[in-house]
Design brief:
Elements lengths: L11 E4 L3 H11 L4 E5 L2 H5 L2 H11 L3 E5 L8 H14 L3 E6 L1 H16 L8 E2 L9 E5 L11 E6 L4 E6 L7 E4 L9 H20 L5 H23 L4 H21 L3 H13 L3 H16 L3 H13 L7 H14 L16 H8 L14 H13 L1
Helix pairs in contact: 4-5, 6-7, 6-8, 6-10, 7-8, 9-10, 9-13, 10-12, 10-14, 11-12, 13-14
Length: 382
Amino acid sequence: MSSVTGFYIPPISFFGEGALEEAADFIKGRDYVRALIVTDPGIVKIGLSDKVKAMLEARGLTVAVYDQTQPNPNIANVIAGLKELKANNSEIVVSIGGGSAHDNAKAIALLATNGGEIGDYEGVNRSKKPSLPLFAINTTAGTASELTRFTIISNEEKKVKMAIIDNNVTPAVAINDPTTMYGLPPSLTAATGLDALTHCIEAYVSIAANPITDACALKGIDLITESLIAAYKDGKDKKARTDMCYAEYLAGMAFNNASLGYVHAIAHQLGGFYHLPHGVCNAVLLPHVQQFNTACPKAKARLGEIATHLGAKDATSEAAIEVLHQFNRAMNIPRNLNELGVKPEDFEILAENAMEDACHLTNPVQFKKEEVIAILKQAYEY
């Protein structure tokens, strides 16, 4: 691995109440004329896509909308969105939602300038040209897709999720306005918040961690420890929601640059195979993968450091892992993979696919297939 460290984030990010208006003014100031909004039916239902569309139209833009993004966006979503973009000759893409909408928008914006099929870009930095400018309006405090160079697209034929890690899919502007999150239901607050926690922890034990990503990860854990359960209990808690916006962004800065590990590598397979929610898969897997990661002395020591940031009395890896289980119980996350409907007969193919996922490359322990199966078994029987 090269000794050179890179650090990648959007050139501009807006935070706080009023960030939507600030972003709309910014777009107007750049003299764009035609925009494509990429979102999902849930965002349409609550009226947020119409609100953003009206804001952009009031500033002189012609706006088209693709609103059929699925919870785990697939190749068909990318193709349909790209068709809508070309039909309207859109110059920019505006994504509204959580990870799914942003991932789909990233793929659309990438293909708009690079051509080909999205599967051509699976892996690391496969594209040659910058994407169309992407303005990512975040509505969940979890995935950090509004700022990262990651996009995850499901290949439904193969029942896998493709991890595309490419500097060219980094959004031009990230927007985190907590007012868009006040209506987020408790279950989604928990799942997305625990996704952010997973980002922090995997980045902190990653072999590509550095002092900058460490600072982001630990501060992210602090804010999540202080605010996630409060936001779960009261979705209109302004301070908790605002702090979670910052927490998930810090988590995104951490993993966008230190990458992830086997929690995500396995979770991607569960999502692609069973159409399960990504954040929930991460939450269930996180303590079990970290237990296996303690085979690495440095990772074990780092988990001990994490324990105190999670509020544990003891600075040990065991204490950290126990707090992670407690977080899950406090927010009614399914106890194990059995409750999620995962089948033991699929463990072998899930393990094989996880070992092909680029996210595992920075895990502190490079597991053999038998060890990945053992993780799945433990998370199934817990």
